[in-house]
Amino acid sequence: MNLNQHCWNHEEREAACRCPACGRSYCRECVSEHEGRLLCAACLIRITANRQPETHTLRKLAPPAMIAAGILLAWLVYWAAGAALIGLIHRMSAMRGVRTHACSVHTPVNAECFSADQDA
Ligand SMILES: [Zn+2]
Ligand SMILES: [Zn+2]
Asked: Please, which residues have CB within 8 angstroms of residue 113's CB and are 6 or more apart in sequence?
């Protein structure tokens, strides 16, 4: 079979066949059989990539899953930070309470406690 053309990749070689997908002529080395058709390397990659719906859907589903995981992580960090902050505020207010009402006898703090502080 002589197409009177040269291989798209090899100018010095005569084309042995034509890629049915892109219509370019190639030598026998530049094409490979795929489902009974001789395709060039570029078309073979393109077609085989398109004919893998599993990886395609996985790639499509990956970003939403990543976003969901990110939101969950952010929420957890936010929750942990909030809990830590609340704990810190409680601790600080407790410490302040100890300092202002430094009376171990009168707890909870009442008028007697304050008068005792004033006397001292
Ligand atoms: Zn092709
Ligand atoms: Zn070639």
From this structure: 101, 103, 105, 106, 107
CA distance 102 to 111: 13
Q: What are the pLDDT digits (tens) for 74-118?
A: 999 999 999 999 999 988 888 776 555 555 565 555 555 555 555
Per-residue pLDDT at 1: 47
Domain ranges in the chain are 1-51, 71-114
Q: Compute, in angstroms, the gap from residue 20 CA to the centroid of ligand 1.
A: 6
Centroid of ligand 1 to alpha carbon of 24 (angstroms): 6
What is the whole-number distance in angstroms between the Cα of residue 47 and the centre of ligand 1? 10
- Model confidence at 70, pLDDT cuts 50, 70, 90, reads very high
